[in-house]
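A common beginner's mistake is to predict each chain separately and then try to dock the pieces by hand. The better habit, illustrated here, is to supply every component at once so that their relative placement is modeled jointly.
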Amino acid sequence: MELHPILQEFLDTWVYPTGFSGPGYDFRMHITERCIPAWNGMTMSAVKAAQEDAKTPTREWLWSSVLAGYAGEGPQMSIKQMSTQLLSVSLEDQERYIDLQRMRAQQVWDEVKHGMLHADVMLRGGYVKREEELMDSADANTLGILSYFGCTAMFPHIHPLARAAQHYFFEGSACLGIQVRMRYMNDPLDLHDNLSQYVDELMHFMEGKYQMDVYALTEKDQRAIEDTLDFLLKPWAPTLADALARAKQGAAA
Amino acid sequence: MNQPTRLPGAALAQELTEAGHADGAHTPFDLVLEAARRGELDEAAYYRLLGRLWVLKRLMYYVYGGWAQGLNVNEYPPSVDYLLSKQLYDDSTHEMVLVDEILRRGLAPTQRAVFRHPNGRFVIASRIGHFVFTLRALANYAHNIRMAALNLGAKLVELAWLERFAAQFPDPALRTLFDGLIAETASHVQMGRFVVERFVEKPVDQELCRRTAAIARRDYLAVLDEIGGQVLGVEEVTPTGHIEIPRGLD
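With all components supplied together, the output reads:
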């Protein structure tokens, strides 16, 4: 498989260098191998989208992008999603996992701050006059993949480390997507939105990396992460009806 | 000229602020400060002080986690979510600052050792537990009410003793530490004021704010009493007699 240079650079800079060895690191390398095809595919899709957007000066893409961003990581969704992570550590386990709670406390703030950035783009772009207007928008408050947040909300009942799969795979994807926007676009508002988030997303990715290297040392700890990655790598959108329609199209062709 | 709009909860916010100032004017921690100024506290006492305060802060992850689970999409304007997120992050930072000072002073070799030491252990049957359970129970109330209880209740008392410690504590490192916690604690009080002024309108909610804020102040003062006693080495008096179970509980 030929890797996109942005992904290759990300792997060389952030994924492979590590100060750790042992079962946690070995497990993360196994997880990395599973993530790479998906990361590569989404990087190439993001490049295609950025090239298209760069050719569209009317900026409709910006509006839909920040609106989707606001719905996905606006303050209203983020505080609930992120705070559940604080509760995934039992009092008995706090001695072992308090660093996770600390990182997640920061991430609560990071994620709502990202919502603030999306809102800021909408304000500066003249799409809304006040952020409160977004409370009247169903689009600004509908997350297409509710199950992603529902999965997160289940982590207190699954395992404190399960979140590492989301940190590693999804936040890694976010880093790659932002890198693409920064390299292929020069729209100031788009840059404002993405550049400011990059370091936070990278930190969240590194949290996933750290969690696996340091804590995922036993099969039991690793299982929760692997199961969650299984879920994340499932193609959510296609249903049986989609599959039947595709089969029909194939037969007709 | 247009008159400025009177915010619905402005009078209540003022009332709660005054009640908090009254309760914060003198707290059991005054005795700790006096003892420190007389040079009667040693490093072991400082460990008890920092350790118990740290236990309280590390339990706040569970309080805020529970509260945020009760903040639904579009229930309040986004500013309310922004402020709670910042407060959560701030108290996490305070937790880290406290344990860091314990380690920096060489009072314990590792964070794990602090968890296992009586000074850093969470005890369910304690006044810290009592206060944390009170806060956790506030998850049953609407967010405006719980913000009134903590931020315009217990936080006002916390701010009061922090200001006195920051001004007068004899140990320079601890004085600086307490001073460093003031700006964020004061901002939490302001957040409480913001929420109460704008989002507590109905008379029943206003009365609930008064009652829950009074409970939060009372239970926080009890925490200061417990920690103060531990710092000063005062033995707790075991209550005698039988326990009355309040009516309505089962």
